[in-house]
Amino acid sequence: xxxxxxxxxxxxKTRGQHVTLRCSPISGHxxxxxxxxxxxxxxxxxxxxxxxxERGRGNFPDRFSARQFPNYSSELNVNALLLGDSALYLxxxxxxxxxxxxxxxxxxxxxx
Amino acid sequence: AQTVTQSxxxxxxxxxxxxxxxxxxxxxxxxxxxFWYKQPPSRQMxxxxxxxxxxxxxxxxxxxxxxxxxxxxxxxxxxSDSQLGDTAMYFCASSTPFYFGNxxxxxxTGTRLTIIP
Lengths: 112, 117
Fold this sequence. Notes:
heterodimer; A: mainly beta; four-stranded antiparallel beta sheet; globular; B: mainly beta; six-stranded mixed beta sheet; 50% strand
């Protein structure tokens, strides 16, 4: 069975640009969460979506937004990129409440 | 709000030895889960072990076991018979209760574990 997939693997953007990161959950998983992992730190929660509705939001500015599609895949959008947005962005999926999260390999974003 | 603290930034141990990674947490919730995740250089975050807070029995998964002290809010990971493949960053994490699908993981800063041949 395919695990959580994320695209792209790496990308480089310039300050002020916009970026879209994509995540496909494991088949049958209806919940997707996004985390930001700055180098040398633990992941920080950004968003959770369950059944296409936002169920949780971390302490991130409004430049960060996300959505979940009918097939449960998800996009994370970041506007007006700052150097501090450089990080590994992790997506995780779970089948439902009370179950473990399965992480994807992440997207490494570098902002120059 | 939940907080997770890992006070050992780096550890190393000889292959086949036992090592214990420390974690303390703080939460006002009665119902929560605790986790240890492993992140090798490949970046993939892999669940090592999980503990339900309402269970007194410590979780075990093969060579991995935890020492869960609820009153002390301590959750340490013991790796027995350590192997070279155990070399990775290890993150302790807690989760909020499962209301309406809102399940946020709060991570510590990690412990870099190196297994020496």
